[in-house]
Design a protein that fits this description.
Layout: H1 11-23, E1 45-49, E2 52-55, E3 60-63, H2 78-89, H3 99-111, E4 117-121, H4 124-139, E5 143-147, H5 165-168, H6 179-182, E6 185-188, H7 193-202, E7 207-212, H8 228-239, E8 242-246, H9 258-263, E9 269-273, E10 283-287, H10 289-292, H11 311-324, H12 329-351, E11 356-360, E12 363-367, H13 376-379, H14 384-396, E13 399-400, E14 409-410, H15 417-435
Parallel strand pairs: 3-13, 5-6, 5-7, 7-8, 8-9
Antiparallel strand pairs: 1-2, 2-3, 4-10, 9-10, 11-12, 12-14
Bound molecules: (4S)-4,5-diaminopentanoic acid.
């Protein structure tokens, strides 16, 4: 069961945060972690085990952040730990090819029919940045279309009306990006096909690519409307534009073959990350050989990395993907996700708070907004102050959620029925608290 709110100590986390702030900007290495979107002091994590996080004060939390998506098997899964241990014993980095990279590449290509060849990098940001470069080189065009509230890492040209921490902290378009670079990005609304068509017509022959999360996950979870992804595919084909699907979150999360399998859509270039590194730093981008062969050394498009295809990350990723192949994994994630989603909706109704749940399998967001949430405008129309109160009430009851109203909540294979029940119970109480103001 979740812990009663009053029993938590937080002194050690508070002291560690103060210490960190003296030497690390904001005390964190990624902004949204600093709790700026919800207020208060971040909990410093001491360890994770299965579905649980333990903080520096010894509090236990049911974890629904899952390191922002990678930990679909939960923390310190023995299969992943053993794979990392075995790889580390043989050396942690060589800057030379290893067999494990080919094995993970074969697994990725096997599950994503649109990917014939894949290049591993060290983060999702590197994956999207490199995919854009390749798309621009292949088409000889400069412009890229992205959705308002879409987040594709902190690539200069993609930090325009970006979601995730950028929206949470109110800097969706950051200083430091030259106007000329930001000017290569054209914004549309998520789920707005006519908007995309209008841009493609207005900039005929100039748009290299559309980059989109097939299920938006960084302005909260937003589902693609019926026909949206197929429509993007059709528009791209008509206008000679490449479709880049950012499956950094959805890849191996919503199905082994990602959103492309779930929705029957084909990307020209796919960006991956998170789960394929099993919790270690990784990214990847892939597509048909005719595109990927334009990369150096076979082609002229340059991209490189000392730690690309790192043996520990490859081993952790392969162990994770292999574990996900076991029968019943995705049906169970769907069952737990459905139970959690339905429980949250019921809890909100009982507490009398406006609430809309968007869910695909084991990723979801509950918006404190009575109306359907289909794009950035409707996602940010929710009650962020209510979320902040709810977040702290949940934290106090031992449930760890993203410290932002604009992120996803995840279920992992380590969650038990009892964990889901405990989260739902805590949510019911916390929503009542949040509703009091
Ligand atoms: N951009 C991540 C969420 N979508 C946050 C990463 C982090 O703070 O660790």
């Amino acid at each position: 069961m979740s812990q009663p709110q009053s029993k938590q100590k937080t002194e050690r986390s508070a002291a560690l945060f103060e210490q960190a702030r003296r030497v690390i900007p904001g005390g964190v290495d990624s902004p949204v972690r600093a709790f700026g979107g919800v207020g208060g002091t971040p909990r410093f994590v001491a360890r994770g085990q299965g579905a649980y996080l333990f903080d520096a004060d010894g509090n236990r939390y049911i974890d629904h952040v899952s390191s922002w998506g990678p930990l679909i098997l939960g923390h310190a899964d023995p299969r992943v730990v053993e794979a990392i241990r075995a790889a580390a014993a043989n050396g942690s980095s060589f800057g030379a090819p290893t067999e494990m990279e080919t094995k993970l590449a074969e697994a990725v290509c096997g599950f994503f029919p649109s990917i014939e060849k894949v290049r591993f990098v060290s983060s999702g940001t590197e994956a999207t940045m490199s995919a854009l470069r390749l798309a621009r080189a292949a088409t000889g065009r400069d412009l890229v279309i992205k959705a308002r509230g879409g987040y594709h890492g902190h690539v200069d040209s993609l930090l325009v009306q970006a979601g995730s921490g950028a929206t949470t902290l109110g800097v969706p378009s950051t200083p430091g990006v030259p106007a000329a670079v930001a000017g290569t990005t054209v914004l549309v609304n998520y789920n707005d096909l006519p908007g995309v068509e209008a841009v493609l017509k207005a900039h005929a022959g100039q748009v290299a690519a559309i980059i989109v999360e097939p299920v938006a996950g960084n302005m909260g979870v937003i589902l693609p409307a019926k026909g949206y992804l197929a429509g993007l595919r059709r528009l791209c084909d008509t206008h000679g534009t490449l479709l880049i699907l950012d499956e950094v979150i959805t890849g191996f999360r919503v199905a082994l073959g990602g959103a492309q399998e779930l929705y029957g859509v084909r990307a020209d270039l796919t960006c991956l990350g998170k789960i394929i590194g099993g919790g270690l730093p990784v990214g990847a981008y892939g597509g048909p050989a005719k595109l990927m062969d334009q990369l150096a050394p076979d082609g002229p498009v340059y991209q490189a990395g000392t730690l690309s295809g790192n043996p520990l990350a490859m081993a952790a990723g392969l162990a994770t993907v292999n574990a996900l192949k076991a029968p019943g994994v995705y049906p169970r994630l769907e069952m737990l996700g459905r139970r959690l989603g339905e429980g949250l909706v019921a809890a909100a109704a009982a507490a009398g708070v406006p609430f809309t749940l968007n869910r695909v399998g084991s990723m979801m967001t509950g918006f404190f907004n009575a109306k359907p949430v289909t794009d950035y405008a409707t996602a940010t129309a929710g009650d962020a102050k209510m979320y902040a109160r709810y977040f702290h009430a949940m934290l106090g009851r031992g449930v760890y959620l993203a410290p932002s109203a604009y992120e996803a909540m995840f279920v992992c294979t380590a969650h038990t029925d009892a964990d889901i029940e405990a989260t739902v119970f805590a949510a019911g109480e916390s929503m009542k608290d949040a509703a009091k103001g």
